[in-house]
UniProtKB/TrEMBL annotation:
It comes from Pediococcus argentinicus. One of its GO terms (molecular function) is glycosyltransferase activity. Transmembrane segments: none annotated. Residues 99-260 form the Glycosyl transferase family domain. The lineage of its organism: Bacteria, Bacillati, Bacillota, Bacilli, Lactobacillales. This is Glycosyl transferase family 1 domain-containing protein.
Length: 283
């Protein structure tokens, strides 16, 4: 078996044109089928040769296969696993984070607009302060090409807002940041694949408010079953959802508990069994 694991034109072409001699072929997509078809018909032409595909999200798949009914594909959905649950947690470091940043909202993302929308989260924090009288801090972990622009955006805010936002750059031990946070907040405009940070938040029983961008967040959270979805590029709606969790301790605890249930679908052993089944049924 040969797997085009990056899911890009280069490795898909390499596998589909038999550069590696293999009885079976597989293409591994890092999102939904329709996302790639939107980018280029070239993907669909390569998929036809490979036949077997793994997707992270099934959103829009029926539509693609219906309107391209001449394409016969064997498509399976398989989530990325998380191993964070088994990582050791330094309790003292968590205490230090809470001491340094107080109750904080956490966003873990590369600074790359519109794939990651830090601006909506910043504006939501401002609304949370002014409209709902809630004053958590906001911690950004990550770097990227948009970072300096986001920092300048923060500088334009009043000192009451700017002083509550912290840029911590890239970090290697993320577990302590999840453990110390009050909530995960995450925003995107153009969509995701299957956001790893949301799965890691589940592994740390961390309630979350995430924009309902295509695709990924709804796949993980369902219809607000395992966390709250907010409208894309709508800081007012995000602020309302954050306030809902901060104001309702019963709902907050409910999402902490449901995180454990949803995490079961992302555990390595379960995904290993599913992958074995997929491999056994390749065409």
């Amino acid at each position: 078996m040969a797997i085009a694991f990056s899911g890009h034109f280069n490795d898909l072409t390499f596998v589909s044109n038999d550069f590696v001699s293999a009885n079976k072929k597989m293409g591994w997509l890092h999102g939904a089928l329709y996302e790639y078809v939107l980018i280029s018909d070239g993907y669909l032409n390569l998929y036809k040769k490979i036949k077997n595909l793994i997707v992270l999200v099934s959103d829009g798949q029926k539509e693609v296969l219906t309107y391209h009914n001449y394409v016969k594909l064997n498509v399976n959905k398989l989530y990325n696993p998380t191993f964070m649950e088994n990582q050791k947690l330094n309790v003292e470091e968590v205490k230090n984070l809470r001491s340094n940043y107080g109750p904080y909202l956490l966003m873990v993302a590369r600074f790359s607009y519109p794939h990651k929308d830090h601006y909506t989260v910043i504006n939501a924090l401002e609304i949370l302060n002014k409209k709902f009288n809630k004053y958590p801090n906001l911690v950004f972990v990550g770097t990227g090409p948009e970072e300096e622009k986001v920092k300048k955006f923060v500088e334009q805010k009043s000192n009451n807002i700017a002083s509550k936002i912290f840029f911590l750059g890239n970090q290697t031990d993320m577990k302590k940041y999840y453990a110390g946070a009050t909530m995960l907040v995450h925003a995107s405009v153009t969509g995701e694949g299957l956001p790893t940070v949301m799965i890691e938040a589940l592994a740390n029983d961390l309630p979350m408010v995430v924009t309902d961008s295509k695709v990924g967040p709804r796949e993980i959270l369902g219809d607000n079953k395992f966390g709250l979805l907010s409208e894309v590029e709508n800081p007012d709606d995000m602020a309302e959802k954050i306030n809902e969790l901060l104001s309702n301790s019963t709902k907050y605890e409910e999402y902490k508990n449901t995180s454990k249930l949803r995490l079961e679908d992302f555990k390595p052993h379960k995904i290993e069994i599913q992958l074995e089944h997929i491999i056994e049924n390749l065409i």
